[in-house]
Amino acid sequence: MPAESAVLAAERAHLAESRAALRRMREHAESLSADVAGDWVSAQFLESLLEQRVAALADHPGAPLFFGRMDRDDAVGGGDSGAGDLPAVMYVGRRHVHDGDEGRPLVLDWRAPVSRAFYQAGPADPMGWRLRRRFGFSGGELTAFEDEPLRGGAAGPSRILTEEIERPRTGPMRDIVATIQPDQDEIVRADLPRTVCVQGAPGTGKTAVGLHRAAYLLFTHRERLARSGVLIVGPNRAFLGYISAVLPALGEVGVEQATIDDLLGAPTAEEPAEASAVKGEARMADVLRKALWLHVTKPAEGLVVTRGSARYRLADHEVREIAAALRGTTRYGSGRAAFAQRLAHRILVQMEKRGEAPDDRVQEQVARSKPVKHVLDTVWPKVTPEQVLYRLLADPAFLGRAAKGLLDEAEQAAILWPKPARSHRSARWTAADRALLDELRDLVERTASLGHLVVDEAQDLSAMQLRALGRRCGTGSATVLGDLAQGTTAWSARSWREVLAHLGQDGDVTELTLGFRVPGTVLDFAARLLPHIAPALERPRSLRPGAGALEVRRVPDLGAAVVAAAREALARPGSVGLIVPDAAVAAHAAALEAAGLEHAVLGPGPGGGTRLLVVPATLAKGLEYDQVVVAEPAAIAAAEARGLARLYVVLTRAVTSLTVLHRDELPAELNG
Ligand SMILES: Nc1ncnc2c1ncn2[C@@H]1O[C@H](COP(=O)(O)OP(=O)(O)OP(=O)(O)O)[C@@H](O)[C@H]1O
Question: Which annotated residues bind ATP (predicted)?
Answer without folding.
Answer: 200-207
